[in-house]
Amino acid sequence: MLLLSLLAAAIAPGIALLAYFYWKDRYDVEPLPIVIRLFLAGALTVLPVMVIQRALTLWLGESPFAFSFLISAGVEEFIKWFVLYHIIYNHTEFDEPYDGIVYATSVSLGFATLENVLYAFNEPVTFGMLLARALLPVSGHALFGVFMGYSMGKAKFSAGKRVPLLLAAAFFLPFLAHGAFDLIQQTVPPEWLWVMVPFMLLLWLRGMINVNRANSVSPFRMIKREEG
């Protein structure tokens, strides 16, 4: 019973956040099978990411900066970007800018959820610790997905020289946010970790601005208005 409770506590935050961003799509909700497939694809990236991170740790050492920006954020966000671009970017169901956010958060939360499950079963944890992870790493991954998906959604519906710049931004924006997130955790003493609260609030604020902007330029917006 305890194991099932831990498993549920580890999985629930990722599912809840994915449902939240999925239903924020105001005009054309994405096919659930594709969203689930991308969530599972994100989970499957955990093993190769762990292997690459282990090799980089042996090569680069464990300095806070190297860990935060190269080993953690660099590897994780690049793999998510790679999966997102090669699986869904050219898919016919990617038909409005907000879709980038739905698909990117699916990949990102798939990764974060399996990572959370492994943490729950490999470390001595309490439900309080899992709650803290839900509020920090798991929601952090969701927001990194929002930043990635927003830029990728803009790239999908842009043309010319803007496209490669926006695709690059789809990696670099979540990479910088993720690296800063990890660097704070690596360098700030535990009694000062409250500074993460305003940082997370800023991430959420930026993320919700992206959500609203992506919805506001949906090509289905006028269709919904006419139907209403």
Automatic annotation (TrEMBL):
Record's subcellular location: Cell membrane
Coiled coil: none
UniProt xrefs under Pfam families: PrsW-protease
Sorted UniProt keywords: Cell membrane, Hydrolase, Membrane, Metalloprotease, Protease, Transmembrane, Transmembrane helix
Similarity comment text for this entry: Belongs to the protease PrsW family.
Protein purpose: Involved in the degradation of specific anti-sigma factors.
Name of the protein in its database record: Protease PrsW
Classification of source organism: Bacteria, Bacillati, Bacillota, Bacilli, Bacillales
Encoding gene per record: prsW
